[in-house]
């Protein structure tokens, strides 16, 4: 179910929400804390710190793009995405540093130092970090409730909080590795950390765990047709799933079980990381399909092929079909055709969201924008944004990309001493 | 000034709930941690596991600080306290030689603002046959010794810190303890 009310959350509107200023104060406090940490690093290891910030900032770009594209139909406002990212990078990290240390110390004190050495990172870290990150999605709900209108929105905001956390943590780990190496202001430990935490374990890290916990918050907020106990239960279950995935990833399980080669390391990564990855992919797919069905349903009521045809409705609900339609337009009408289809799809998605609102002053403008793109496409001899048949070139490109990704992973594992 | 609506007030209260939870994590949990003692008594003459198969017999009268002790399978650390003196041992995988290990440890010490290495290094050894190097350092309000040993694919770093008076009293005991460092390799 998708809640009916959708309202654009512009920065000025956020500033009128009293709760926003409490969140802003938290972000400021987190920014001061993280700036002090970074400044200390930058004083001792300036080149390594700048390299770490640049490398991991670059790594954040594709992650950001993928997370943002998850919800093509009802895109989240950029200011809320930035807020979610900043929460992860500034607030959740600032809180997790002392709390995680205290948690591990308590395990050592109440259990034993051996238990803390083996399981401290698996028990204390996930508990503290997943709470701090999930609160980022909670504050988005508190300051911009109308923006959370599907489970997918919770996934997007949760993943964005996780991404912010992941990037900040990676930078701290990278410069920490430089300090530990004791070789001065060198960038080799930064590169090694980038390979390990960026390429090897980047896919199944905080972004994934955050997405899972965010899905639970999304369900809690949106599924008002369900009993409160069930909604709370699902949110708790999702958080526990995020915690368990994180704990499994940090756990010493399988560390020595499969040997020391690159293949063994790859197997461990897959065994520990794949289950949560598949779970969240399934969840995203399900939430995406549900949302697509809802919005495309609104477009179907228009019965205006000038705005959207039957074939385009089928295309709009699927990410791969949208990409296929853009490729087909590119093949038949060149770059201009591809761009026109992209603009048409975006406008159609915007119109679907506007139709779902009780009232929208921008509907007329959006319809006009669609008609303009339709005229452009007609002029290019490609009047309809339909998906093309699967070409051998696309299949070959997918295979090559997969092979390159595995090769990069293999090289990274080997460079880190796996082979 | 615009009035706060009931919904906004509810959200504001919710946000303060978030603040309270964060405060609980950032300040409450460390406060609970501090409420429990970190020091554990040690039996005299019994070796303590540092990690990665390395053991040491702690000085008589020392206590083990469990917050600085993490005996893992491939790396680890142990922190002992003799009054105000800290005696810290860290073990990590290492594939270089003793000079490289000593250079790296010295760089890490001098990388901390205000820390300076003093004097020259001396060769030291353990009863179990590990070769090492040791030296001294000073820091604002305290000073200390460092030592580093290499063997069996590991580097064992020892850092002793305290004020001059306490160090003068405890160093002989700690140096005797350092000589009991042993790698049995069983943990790896």
UniProtKB/TrEMBL annotation, chain A:
GO terms for molecular function: peptidase activity. Pfam families: PrsW-protease. The chain crosses the membrane at residues 12-32, 44-66, 78-99, 119-143, 155-182, 194-220, 232-249, 261-284, 396-416. This is PrsW family intramembrane metalloprotease. Keywords: Membrane, Transmembrane, Transmembrane helix. PANTHER family: PROTEASE PRSW.
Automatic annotation (TrEMBL), chain B:
It comes from the Bacteria. This is Uncharacterized protein. The lineage of its organism: Bacteria, Bacillati, Actinomycetota, Actinomycetes, Micromonosporales.
């Amino acid at each position: 179910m998708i809640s009916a009310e959708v309202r654009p959350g512009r920065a000025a509107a956020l500033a009128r929400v009293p709760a926003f200023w409490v969140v802003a104060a938290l972000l400021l406090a987190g920014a001061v804390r993280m700036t002090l940490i970074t400044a200390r690093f930058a004083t001792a290891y300036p080149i390594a710190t700048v390299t770490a910030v640049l490398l991991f900032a670059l790594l954040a770009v594709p992650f950001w793009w993928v997370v943002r594209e998850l919800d093509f139909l009802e895109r989240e406002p950029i200011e809320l995405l930035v807020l979610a990212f900043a929460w992860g990078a500034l607030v959740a990290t600032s809180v997790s540093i002392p709390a995680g240390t205290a948690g591990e110390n308590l395990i050592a004190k109440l259990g034993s130092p051996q238990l803390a050495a083996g399981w401290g990172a698996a028990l204390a870290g996930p508990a503290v970090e997943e709470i701090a990150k999930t609160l980022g999605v909670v504050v988005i709900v508190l300051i911009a409730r109308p923006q959370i209108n599907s489970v997918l929105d919770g996934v997007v905001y949760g993943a964005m909080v996780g991404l912010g956390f992941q990037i900040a943590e990676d930078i701290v780990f990278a410069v920490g590795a430089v300090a530990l190496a004791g070789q001065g202001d060198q960038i080799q430990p930064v590169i090694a950390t980038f390979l390990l935490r960026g390429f090897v374990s980047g896919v199944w890290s905080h972004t994934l765990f955050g997405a899972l916990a965010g899905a639970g918050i999304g369900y809690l907020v949106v599924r008002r047709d369900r009993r409160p106990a069930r909604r709370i239960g699902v949110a708790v279950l999702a958080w526990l799933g995020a915690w368990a995935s994180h704990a499994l990833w940090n756990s010493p399980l399988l560390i020595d079980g499969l040997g020391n080669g690159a293949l063994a390391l790859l197997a461990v990564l897959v065994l520990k990381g794949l289950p949560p990855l598949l779970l969240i992919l399934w969840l995203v797919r399900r939430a995406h399909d549900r949302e697509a069905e809802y919005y495309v349903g609104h477009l179907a009521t228009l019965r205006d092929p000038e705005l959207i045809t039957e074939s385009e409705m089928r295309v709009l609900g699927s990410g791969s079909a949208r990409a296929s339609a853009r490729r087909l337009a590119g093949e038949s009408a060149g770059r201009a055709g591809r761009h026109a289809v992209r603009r048409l799809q975006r406008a159609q998605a915007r119109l679907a969201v506007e139709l779902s609102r009780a009232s929208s002053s921008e509907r007329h403008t959006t319809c006009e924008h669609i008609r303009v793109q339709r005229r452009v496409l007609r002029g290019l001899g490609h009047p309809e944004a339909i998906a093309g048949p699967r070409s051998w070139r696309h299949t070959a490109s997918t295979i090559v990309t997969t092979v390159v990704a595995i090769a990069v992973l293999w090289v990274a594992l080997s460079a880190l001493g796996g082979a | 000034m615009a009035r706060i609506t009931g919904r906004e007030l509810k959200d504001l209260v919710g946000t303060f709930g978030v603040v309270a939870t964060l405060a609980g994590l950032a300040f409450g949990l460390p406060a609970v941690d501090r409420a429990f003692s970190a020091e554990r008594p040690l039996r005299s003459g019994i070796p303590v596991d540092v990690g990665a198969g390395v053991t040491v017999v702690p000085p008589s009268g020392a206590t083990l600080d469990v917050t600085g002790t993490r005996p893992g399978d491939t790396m680890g650390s142990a922190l002992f306290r003799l009054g105000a003196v800290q005696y810290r041992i860290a073990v990590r995988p290492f594939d270089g030689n003793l000079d490289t290990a000593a250079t790296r440890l010295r760089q890490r010490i001098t990388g901390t603002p205000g820390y300076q290495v003093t004097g020259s290094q001396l060769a030291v050894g353990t009863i179990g046959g590990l070769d090492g190097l040791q030296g001294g350092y000073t820091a604002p309000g305290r000073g200390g010794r460092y030592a580093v040993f290499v063997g069996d694919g590991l580097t064992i770093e020892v850092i002793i810190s305290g004020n001059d008076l306490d160090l003068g009293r405890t160093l002989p005991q700690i140096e005797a303890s350092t000589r009991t460092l042993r790698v049995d390799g069983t943990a790896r």
